[in-house]
Amino acid sequence: MQNGQTFELDPSSVDTKSPVPVYLQVEQDIRRQILTATLAPDMRLPRETELARLYGISRMTVRNALERLEDASLIRRDHGVGTVITVPQAEVDCDLSLMMPLQTQLTEQGFTPSVQFFQNEVIEPAPRIAAALEVAPGTEVLFLNRLVKIDGRPMALIRSWVPLAMFPGLESRTLIDGSLWKTLEAHYDCTMLHSSKHLELISVSTADALILHLADGERTLAVTGLGRDGKGAAVEYSYAIWMPTARLNFDSHFQALAESN
Predict the structure, then answer these.
(1) What is residue 256's predicted lDDT score, i.e. its pLDDT?
(2) 164 falls in which pLDDT band (50, 70, 90)?
(3) How many CB atoms lie within 10 A of CB 150?
(4) Model confidence over 22-68: pLDDT tens digits?
(5) Beta strands in the chain (DSSP E)
(6) Going from the N-terminus, what domains does the chain have, and what CATH number goes with each?
(7) In angstroms, how far is CA 129 from the centroid of its own chain?
């Protein structure tokens, strides 16, 4: 390390009997120290061999942990310098009250968004999702599961269910700029005009934490939404898990109830 600062190893952070892989436990311990400013920007981490000795694990396990931290833009590895803590990520604004694709909002803030798809398949949705989409049980829908990134780092894990009867052939199309809304408008003349959203604070599952580069069980915001077109038809049921660095906002309008005589 440098500037007299030391790496504060938490020996209890690695439990070889835990179902959580050891490399994830190491990643989460180093991540914790970065996010709590115990490890400051431009500080150097110990070498891989030293980290392996400190944690009592193999060098390959350490390397896997560092690769995930690098993918999350929390560290960088410079040839001849070593592994360096990076500057904290800038907060990202998303206005939930705007009927505007997420990628468009990110681009307007100067970020470079990209989308990584994990699933694009035709399924029979769960009863509650079929009810929300106002389709009969057993009706086929398109299920999309994708990760939106900005400048290469995770921002939101978004799952969408779309009724295929309204959009035949959608499962075979490449989404324009990775955006479902842009694709529906361009190919089906469908514009999303109304959306209801429900926000909740959740504990991220192990599987989702792995994708988002978060700690297992870390608390963050999830948004459930139902989008409708100009005719009021349900077009998309969605569930999005946001990174803690995202700053979500929306406009609300309230009207007082008239008192009854």
Answers:
(1) 57
(2) very high
(3) 25
(4) 898 888 888 878 877 777 888 889 999 999 988 889 999 999 999 98
(5) 75-78, 82-85, 92-95, 113-123, 141-150, 153-163, 192-203, 219-229, 234-242, 246-249
(6) 11-85 (1.10.10.10), 92-248 (3.40.1410.10)
(7) 21
